[in-house]
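Quick look at the format.
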Amino acid sequence: MERQKRIAVINDFSGFGRCSLTVSIPIISAMGIQCCALPTAIFSNHTGYDDYFFDDYTDKMEYYYSKWEKLELTFDGIYTGFLGSERQVDIVSGFIKRFAKNDTRIIVDPVMGDDGRTYATLTPGLCRRLGRLARHSDIMTPNLTEACILTGTPYSGKLTDTDALLYICKKLVDMGGKNIVITGIDQGNNIGNFIYNENGSYSMYCTPFSGSRRAGTGDVFASVIAADAINDIPFEESVKTAASFVAKAIKKSDEMGIPAQDGVCFELFMNDLIQQ
């Protein structure tokens, strides 16, 4: 009997602002995958706003997923997003050890910072833990800032030449990564995504710079990548789909005057993912 494919998504839940689980659940579902959410925290809205409600879910995470163990759930994929503490990384590593099988695809989005700046929650210990999480991954989706942090490479927005990007990817492979895409690379009038495949091949895929930088675009991108991985779509093709989808959503959001902190109106383009 045919079984619908299933992915566990470990991330925070932000009720407003189009990021994290509120992005992943609809996108992954539209692409035909059952999306099973394991929240790391609950936010009324993401931290880019001046005020927000926050409930840390760390102490509940293991008890939460222990019920999945009792149900004997299996997952075709596990996708990890923002993790706010060393303990959360350890819990996620434990989850992967319990639920990942030989054919389970592991997608790690190491959410650590952007534009050369780290998020307030990032500590040296958390950085090391996130680096160790890479060894579980089949796919990693860091932006340029995060790739530099993970590999100890000095950040520069001009770090765009192939040799430098290839050097970073090989360092990520040494940490345990396999397929890697470094996102958000400034290419003048374009935004580049440097793709490194586990067979050693690499390429750059660019989309026209379509508008302002917005909250949640990394979550949109990684959610498409995760669903495509479970659907056995070739990695390079998946990156092109994700980058084009994000670019369209940014352009339309700017046209509609949606504030940057409110994310992108990806909902208007969901039919594109369903049809694919």
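Next, a different chain entirely:
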Amino acid sequence: MLFGKKKGVAGLDVGSSSVKVVELDGKLNNLSLVGLGYENLPDDTIVDGQIMEMNAVSEVIQNVCKDHQISANQVVTGVSGHSVIVKNIVLPPMSRDELEESIDWHAEEHIPYDLSDVSLDYHVTSQTNDATQVLIAACKRERIDALKQAVQLAGKQPVVIDIDTFALQNCYEINYQPDASQTVALLNIGASTMNVNIVQGVNSVFTRDITVGGSQFTDILQRNLGLSFQQAEAVKRGVVDPQSNMDEKSIEPLMNNVTEMVAMEIQKTFDFYRATTEDTGVQVQKILISGGGSKLAGLAEELSSKLELPVEVLDPFRQIKVDTRKFDPDYLSEIMPEMAVAVGLAVRGVEVR
């Protein structure tokens, strides 16, 4: 079940280009970092969220846990992309038993897949005399089954399958402790997918997964400048080899083309949210970005300028105790933006163990 409470500790984020794992200890208001690992996946092992090379993915999961001494045998992992549907729906007032009996019927109106093909869960977000507000979440069973198989082949037991956008929200709530008046947009910019979660206080009011990510920047640099993947990755992050004789003036317009596309997709998401929300007074006040794509040189400033909102990189360890004798601060700083979902999944692990 997507919201099911079971025993688990480590958070395992299997992305399209890398595997991240985080192990936390303590209580939710006093967490410490116990273990952390990051390892790239071979090219094309996961395409559009689909695991194409099961053995390769499970081997990387096994290696990253072994190499970084992740002791937890149980993990919380997550899904995202087009196979995942998340909707906030408003139903008439009803009891929990009535909702349990009728949820499949209500969900059919909002989920574009046959219910027999999905794993479905729901959570009541508020209840008044006039209405019951429910968050429903569904994911294609084949996606969940493939992810579970990859994790089990690596010798770990998946005890909760969460949703990446909710994991991102967990990470935000633990580290930023928002009050009810704050409305922020959480953006996790992965290699091929951008998860968007608009959060008011601690309530998710709108989510969307967009098929755009850091790989678009890399691709355009490779195609137009004849660079290798490694060279394009370095240029993307603002590192230009002086020996390469590269015309740096040619880089900026290429990068701006993709940044413009990213900003446009975010703006479309905000516009759609405003068009569908009943609370027209609620406006996004700030954007927090994470994921490998957020490490792009100057991206926060560019998005802030185009969207006319403050944009900053989310710090997933802001309120988590980190022993700098055990974890190299420079390494942690380098991979920090990519660890937000894994931290959120690990927080969920602490909640359910």
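Residues 251-276 form the longest helix (26 residues).

See the schema section for token definitions.
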